[in-house]
């Protein structure tokens, strides 16, 4: 039983420091917003939908333990729904966000009904099929998506009726950052305590979790739906920050990039996934401006360096540095207790 | 009717080429657990080398195919060295590494060969058409089909009749037993990755007369190879060959007969195969 109680304690302790990264993120956004550079505002604002999508991927991949490429489906549903609502004259941001969250959850629920019965490579390949079907449908369903040309000139949303539309670079940045940080905070809050334990137990020893009476697939399906709602919100942000969309924005390329961004950031940590997404897009859209046409080279190099330099992702770095520090401090320094991720040994 | 027969033969030829490419990928996964997302880039590299080196003579064609195979093998060697450091780190880290290598490789290929679709210049004897059983058929495609059959037969013999092939199959089944007979399974892994790269380069070179090679080649080839590997049952060569021929035929015949639904066909077929298969896939570790 000791390992189990220990794991619960670890899970409880961890939920507190999780607030700190969100505060840091908010401060970083404020610093960016204070700077007098509209280009910087736009660039950062356009990274945020992708960052929120990475958070939703991290929920499914890191917490539910199901490596997914399929989160682009609810993302696309949310984005195209928002675009259609805005084009028909419904321009309230809150309506967009709520509708996208619902449709994202429904799409993820439908896909999840099939997906969550599978694990590992089969899950990954089925989610690849979901991603491909999303991109193909987005390209073929011209009435909704405008075909491969995409939709452009989508009107900007309003926060409240009567307010001017969200057009200023700084306003859009602050709005997108608020939604992203709030959604991430809700996800972190939802994934604390017993829920987190339950998912850890499912990842570590599914058979045992099942034997203890937990309806594992039902839990995973609910997590998948909730992550779908987040991806739907990310889709709304995509429209609100870019105000155009093409099927390429919701295709396999985005799916692979966002999954790998979450892995670079550390898939167990939602904030880490968002930071990973910002780093990947920073390399692709900002650094790559210096060497035009070679963005894939830089992103590829980032992945290769990341996999060797950051095992376990960016968020595992502090723990690794501490361990190295202790090892250098002396041979008698106690080894840090390994994180109790398994509930297998209950004796 | 004529079109349908020709496309079916095209599909089988294309499927055999995909089988050659996917056989290496599936064995690398089955034996060493390496899921190589740079595979499509090796195929594209083979195609580019073939397209750039051929000059309409038999000699240049043979050299081009040899060079493409060697380039693929070199890529496999790089991959073997790179993945050796990631042992025990899970598939997502390998995906990160191999996808990174694929992005870098794709960028280098585009920088060297440009972003146009290239086609090889075949010897004059292969440019015409020939009548087979009442149908006109392009000679180069028949030649590709013949070579693909030859490579598949040689591959089968090597895998089933030679000591090296038996070691590879043994590693897929039981690594500890291979170590027990005095062979380091990691050496087998590295050899499989090099051979897998060589087969990818060869398949790329052989595909160019049919499809040409361009910036989209790597992604398409990777996607098709992954579908084949998964549908064939991870690690199974006969399964991969059967799946590859299926994919080749669906890709070519499907486009001709039901163009409206063609984009959905392959992905749906893969999903159905994954969903209806009863027996567990090897390597499906949760």
Automatic annotation (TrEMBL), chain A:
Region (Disordered): 325-347
Ranges that cross the membrane: 18-36, 48-73, 93-115, 172-191, 218-238, 244-263, 270-289, 295-317
Keyword Nucleotide-binding: no
Bilayer disposition of the protein: Multi-pass membrane protein
Segments of skewed composition (Low complexity): 331-341
Taxonomic superkingdom: Bacteria
Stated name of the protein: Branched-chain amino acid ABC transporter permease
Species per Swiss-Prot/TrEMBL record: Micromonospora qiuiae
UniProtKB/TrEMBL annotation, chain B:
Organism superkingdom: Bacteria
Subcellular localization: Cell membrane
Pfam families: BPD_transp_2
Keyword Nuclease annotated: no
Signal sequence region: none
Membrane topology qualifier: Multi-pass membrane protein
Assigned keywords, A-Z: Amino-acid transport, Cell membrane, Membrane, Transmembrane, Transmembrane helix, Transport
Bilayer-spanning residue ranges: 12-30, 37-55, 61-83, 95-113, 142-159, 221-247, 253-276
InterPro entries in alphabetical order: ABC_transp_permease, BCAA_transport_permease
Family: Belongs to the binding-protein-dependent transport system permease family. LivHM subfamily.
Protein name: Branched-chain amino acid ABC transporter permease
The species this protein was found in: Micromonospora qiuiae
């Amino acid at each position: 039983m000791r390992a189990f109680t220990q794991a619960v304690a670890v899970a409880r302790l961890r939920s507190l420091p999780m607030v700190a990264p969100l505060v840091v993120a908010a401060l970083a956004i404020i610093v960016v917003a204070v700077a007098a550079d509209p280009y910087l505002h736009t660039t950062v604002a356009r990274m945020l939908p992708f960052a929120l999508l990475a958070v939703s991927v991290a929920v499914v991949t890191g917490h539910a333990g199901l490596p997914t490429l399929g989160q682009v489906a609810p993302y696309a549903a949310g984005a195209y729904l928002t675009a259609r609502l805005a084009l028909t004259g419904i321009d309230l941001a809150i309506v967009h966000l709520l509708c996208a969250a619902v449709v994202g959850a429904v799409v993820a629920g439908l896909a999840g009904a099939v997906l969550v019965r599978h694990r590992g490579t089969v899950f990954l390949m089925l989610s690849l099929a979901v991603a491909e079907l999303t991109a193909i449908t987005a390209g073929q369903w011209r009435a909704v998506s405008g075909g491969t040309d995409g939709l452009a000139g989508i009107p900007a949303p309003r926060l409240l009726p009567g307010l001017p539309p969200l057009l200023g670079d700084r306003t859009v940045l602050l709005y997108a950052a608020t939604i992203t940080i709030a959604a991430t905070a809700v996800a972190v809050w939802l994934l604390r305590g017993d829920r987190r334990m339950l998912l850890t137990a499912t990842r570590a020893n599914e058979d045992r979790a099942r034997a203890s009476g937990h309806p594992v697939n039902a839990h995973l399906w609910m997590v998948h739906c909730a992550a779908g709602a987040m991806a739907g919100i990310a889709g709304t942000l995509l429209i609100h920050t870019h105000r155009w969309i093409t099927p390429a924005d919701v295709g396999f390329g985005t799916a692979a990039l966002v999954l790998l961004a979450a892995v670079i950031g550390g898939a167990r940590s939602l904030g880490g996934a968002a930071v990973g997404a910002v780093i990947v897009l920073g390399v692709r859209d900002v650094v790559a401006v210096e060497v035009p046409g070679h963005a894939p080279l830089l992103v590829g190099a980032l992945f290769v360096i990341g996999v060797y330099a950051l095992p376990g992702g960016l968020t595992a770095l502090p723990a690794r540095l501490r361990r190295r520090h202790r090892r250098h401090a002396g041979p008698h320094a106690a080894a840090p207790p390994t994180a109790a991720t398994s509930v297998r040994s209950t004796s | 009717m004529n079109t349908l027969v020709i496309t079916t033969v095209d599909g089988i030829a294309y499927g055999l080429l995909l089988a050659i490419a996917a056989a290496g990928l599936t064995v690398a996964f089955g034996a060493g657990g390496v899921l190589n997302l740079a595979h499509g880039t090796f195929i594209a590299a083979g195609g580019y080398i073939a397209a750039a080196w051929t000059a309409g003579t038999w000699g240049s064609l043979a050299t081009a195919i040899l060079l493409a195979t060697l380039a693929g093998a070199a890529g496999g060697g790089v991959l073997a060295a790179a993945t050796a450091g990631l042992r025990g780190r899970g598939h997502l880290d390998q995906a990160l590494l191999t996808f990174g290598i694929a992005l870098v490789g794709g960028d280098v290929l585009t920088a060297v060969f440009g972003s146009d679709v290239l086609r090889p210049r075949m010897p004059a004897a292969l440019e015409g058409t020939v009548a087979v059983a009442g149908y006109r058929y392009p000679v180069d495609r028949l030649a590709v089909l013949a070579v693909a059959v030859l490579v598949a037969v040689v591959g089968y013999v090597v895998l089933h009749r030679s000591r090296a092939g038996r070691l590879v199959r043994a590693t897929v089944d039981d690594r500890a037993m291979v170590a027990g007979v005095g062979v380091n399974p990691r050496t087998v892994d590295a050899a499989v990755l090099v051979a897998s790269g060589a087969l990818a380069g060869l398949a790329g070179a052989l595909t160019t007369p049919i499809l040409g090679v361009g910036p989209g080649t790597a992604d398409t080839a990777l996607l098709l190879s992954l579908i084949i590997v998964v549908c064939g049952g991870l690690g199974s060569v006969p399964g991969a060959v059967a799946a590859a021929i299926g994919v080749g035929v669906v890709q070519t015949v499907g486009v001709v007969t039901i163009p409206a639904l063609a984009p959905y066909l392959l992905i749906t077929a893969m999903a159905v195969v994954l969903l209806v298969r009863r027996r567990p896939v090897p390597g499906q570790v949760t």
